[in-house]
Write the structure tokens for this entry.
Amino acid sequence: MTTRRLPRWHEVKPLLGTENPFTNRRAHALARAANIWDLRSLAKRHTPAAVFDYTDGAAGDELALTRAREVFGRLEFEPRVLRDVSHLDTSTEILGAVSAFPMVLAPTGFTRMMHYEGEPAVAAVAASSGIPYSLSTLGTTSIEDLARAVPTARRWFQLYLMRDRSPSLELLERAASSGYDTLILTVDAPVGGLRHRDVRNGLTIPPKLSISTLANMSRYPAWWFNVLTTEPLEFATFRNTEGT
């Protein structure tokens, strides 16, 4: 037969959470995110639909994106048993230099539209993780500014070839002189893809203030505040480039 009693304080105290009620709620939510899908859900809640869909979407019916995820989902780790796993080495060589993981952060255009800290924040994470970071031709931080902001990062540069080769060559020279050691050459984008989500959302870069966007501000005040109180969104690498 079970005997019941009132709990004692010294028994209950260790079970109580020590969470500070004044802790930044967003930082707390990020810390509790268990995987990329949790982070995706947070992003969807805190950014306007057009911005989220620009980041989350792809061209056409997004079949290539769906298939890429399916292929990635089929990757498996090969089980190894009865091995010493106290000291693991995940490093590998990628294009002539050691990377802490077999991973590279790929280029994304207009990063500061997604979050006001933009490319330097992503490159800083890459540097602290020991993996390469790739700056897009359509980035919102210039080649030189990123190099100054994150000098310890291994930096790659992604290039779109333009019909007039002079600007492309100028960008290559600037990247090389700023310490970028690898070129990513995009050759399959003679025209921009038809991104259905962007069309439906009426996405403009930078976002234009209209009646609908003004109404939208009330739902995402922090995002709009950051957009309106930081440097204007622009393709920063082209700021001082002739012929573009």
